[in-house]
Specification:
The structure is a single chain. The protein has 322 residues and is an alpha/beta fold. It folds into two domains: 11-212, Crotonobetainyl-coa:carnitine coa-transferase, domain 1 (Rossmann fold, 3-Layer(aba) Sandwich), CATH 3.40.50.10540; 241-316, formyl-coa transferase, domain 3 (2-Layer Sandwich). The chain is built from 13 helices and eight strands. The protein has a six-stranded parallel β-sheet, with helices on both faces. A two-stranded antiparallel ribbon has the order 7-8.
Length: 322
Amino acid sequence: MTPRSILEGIKIADFTWVAVGPLVTRQLAEHGATVVHIESHKRPDYTRVSAPYKDGIPGIDRSGMFAIYHTNKYGMSLDLTKPQGREVARKLVAWADVVAEGMSPGSMAKLGLDYESCRQIKPDIIYVSTSQMGQTGPHRNLGGYGPMGAAYSGVLHVVGWPDRPPVRVTVAHSDYIAPWYLCTVIVAALDHRRRTGKGLYLDQAQIESGIAFWGPGLLDYIANGRIVVRMGNRDPYMAPHGAFPCLGDDEWAAVAIASDKEWRALVLAMGDPGWAREPRFVTLLVRKENEDELEHLVAEWTKDYTAEQVMATLQAVGVPSV
């Protein structure tokens, strides 16, 4: 007998698009929910025109990203600007346990498919909205994508060098954090409805999920008054930690010392220089206090050797290096 999936029998009308919403409904579909993803031929899901494409050939049905984000779902094309399309959408609402939408605030209301309208169709509906800034507040109408969420949640502020402007992160930060918070809340809402018979309206501001990932930095500020700053290649719990110049043209060795044991091994690799035994370098705490000078001294050692020689020497004594 096949084990029953935990969300078997749950039906979801999925009006989300791009990343966050589709990742949420995909996760629910993979746990047994029946998900119908609604698009329009006039405005298909953005991921349909996003690489990579099968065989490297662009096409509306060839995107690997779309396939990944919509695994185990059904698909439907509806023109919600037409009365007939909205009528079909209302029938989907009546069928569904969950309605999920990822449009800019106010868009679903214009179509007559916002929470209050859907609750008139199905009083116990669980209605889910996910957007950059949420449905309320002074910035509610600021639409955008994950890179904007990364900036507004503070991620870019701590990426880069302290004496230079922030550097953009390589991923849409909030796009890959927000879905998992929302999945958890939807399952909780389903349990709430099972126990009480009542539906819920869930409003997610994706930026808040991005901010929540900065828990240690927020706590450090609240408890100690310290503001997280850009550190370049440094690490708060390692010293030295960085990329050091080596002999040759644009040759570098990355060194990360995570413990006093590794520090003693690095000292051995450098030939046991006298400065390394000074009190200002013997423990991690004091090395962090003197990190500028420490990095300069390590760089004075690495610059006389090729990157391969440095790495071989470090690996011989058990120091991680790249």
